[in-house]
From TrEMBL:
It comes from Pseudomonas cucumis. Keywords: Hydrolase. Residues 21-244 form the AB hydrolase-1 domain. The keyword rRNA-binding does not apply. It comes from the Bacteria. Signal peptide: none annotated. This is Alpha/beta hydrolase. Pfam families: Abhydrolase_1. GO terms for molecular function: hydrolase activity.
Length: 267
């Protein structure tokens, strides 16, 4: 268990294995545990670094406004703290947004980028967007973290054989600091870097579940805006692909990372 300090906030991270550095960034209301099915497979080939985003897991939860740019700055500070040099970066959901922010701000820090079930912007444009956001915001304010966790578990892992995953998510969600969770949700709303995607210079893999919250078509649209990107759709998966299709996800990611590392060694 390791910690470092950035702007008065103690941030927790874990390290495994050796090789090219690989950062894994979890989603909203989650923690390093998002990646429990990835760490053994990935750390056999890479130096895997798994942080808890500010307000999450074992990191401090300061009562302040959070922002995606702020989360990204924490990640850059961690890379400097560990003296990493260019690294592979993988982000799931909100972690994907943090990864996009870092990739457009500091493209030279990245060897590759992998975005999982995420998008380069979350904009409210129509009246319906505002209404959907308001409904979700009100529900999150009204319900306990335990109740949200149970509902989320049922949505992410609906199959009878996924009962243990449902229980795991419900138990983890209940431990969230509600203030930090809401502040992180607020950080996502109206954030976006889509107009700057041409700055992302590294090879990019976009992974989408076939049954993610947002349609595959949305990912196809932004993949075209990235200079060197391809999309892989994982079948029979929902928003938590690394947990519901771990073997398929790990194989897809490792093949991509190996190809990137081989190409950079050749140059």
């Amino acid at each position: 268990m390791a910690y470092f300090e950035h702007e008065g906030c103690n941030l927790h991270y874990e390290e495994y294995g050796h090789g090219t550095p690989l950062l894994l960034v979890h989603g909203l209301g989650s923690s390093t545990l998002d990646w429990e099915m990835q760490i053994p497979a990935l750390s056999a080939h890479h130096r895997v670094i798994v942080p808890d985003v500010r307000g999450h897991g074992r990191s401090d939860k300061p009562r302040e406004r959070y922002s995606i740019a702020g989360f990204s700055a924490d990640l850059i500070a961690l890379m400097e703290h560990l003296n990493l040099g260019p690294a592979h970066l993988v982000g799931l959901s909100m972690g994907g947004m943090i990864a996009f922010q870092l990739a457009v701000d500091q493209p030279q820090l990245l060897k590759s980028l992998c975005i999982v079930n995420s998008a380069p912007e979350v904009k409210r444009r129509s009246r319906n967007d505002y209404w959907q956001w308001f409904k979700r915001w009100s529900l999150m304010r009204a319900l306990s973290m335990g109740t949200i966790g149970k509902a989320l578990g049922a949505k992410l892992f609906p199959k009878p054989e996924q009962a243990s995953l449902r229980q795991k998510i419900a138990a983890r969600w209940a431990k969230n600091d509600k203030h930090a969770y809401l502040a992180s949700f607020d950080a996502i709303v109206d954030w976006g870097v889509q107009e700057r995607l041409s700055r992302v210079s590294c090879p990019t893999l976009v992974v989408s579940a076939d049954r993610d919250y947002t349609p595959v078509a949305l990912k196809e649209t932004y993949v075209k805006l990235l200079p060197d990107a391809r999309l892989v759709v994982i079948a029979d998966s929902r928003h938590a692909t690394p947990l519901d299709q771990p073997e398929r996800f790990n194989q897809t990611l490792l093949e991509f990372l190996t190809a990137v590392d081989t190409t950079t060694q050749d140059h």
